[in-house]
Amino acid sequence: MTSADAPVLRAVRRGDPGAVLALIESDRPGVLAAKRPVAALYRLMMSAPGLATSPEGHWTGELGKHVDAVVCAHAACIGPMRAADLVAIPRKVLKNAYPRIFPEELPAILERLGENYQRAPKNWDKISPYGVMFDWVVCGLAPAPTGDGTVNHLLFTLRWSKPRERAALFAAAPALAAITLPRLFDAEVRPSLGAAALDWQLDPASEDRIDRQILGLLRTGTWDSEQVHDGIDRFRTRHTSAFQLRWADGLERLLAAERAEP
User: What is the pTM of this model?
Assistant: First the structure.
């Protein structure tokens, strides 16, 4: 049998991601042997419009689950770090298939996704599914991350989540509140990254603001005031821009007002 007849290619052509994953788990060397034709199919499918057909017979029927299948196969062939760098990874593939393809490398992939976000936080084609990294923490598949990009992505996730979603996330993965989130005072920021960038467009009373969410963590006893004041001090030593320092000053005023309440 030639690599062109490999079972993984047949599974990709018929749009069967489940069969592709089963082959990766049971016969990875066989999948890797088909690396070149898998890459060729990946380029064809990722450049084709949805529901496209292939008169040449590269895939059967209308293009649909074939994309999930070929991304799984291609990711296995190129390895974890290059797989983390792929553009337009289907969300369900990143969430559910990557842990099966790379069970040992998942923590490193998580941090790599954070690095990608840190470099290009507005590259929506690439970063749109990255929120699933926190699902991996919830499921116990990876430890709470600490890299700058993962911290800033957690802030982004919290900013755009509903209050009950935020509460559910921290209840399911307390380490995100205990380990990842405190790093917001230390992580590298820029105009589109960090707490100040997320808060400045919001009403001062909005509960979606990061500073207000910090206040909420204090009220629930998840964080303590000494921890927050230490964080503010570290933040001020790292930043000199007026924009960033105004955010720290505002957080400090919130803490003072909270202490002053009867």
Answer: 0.94
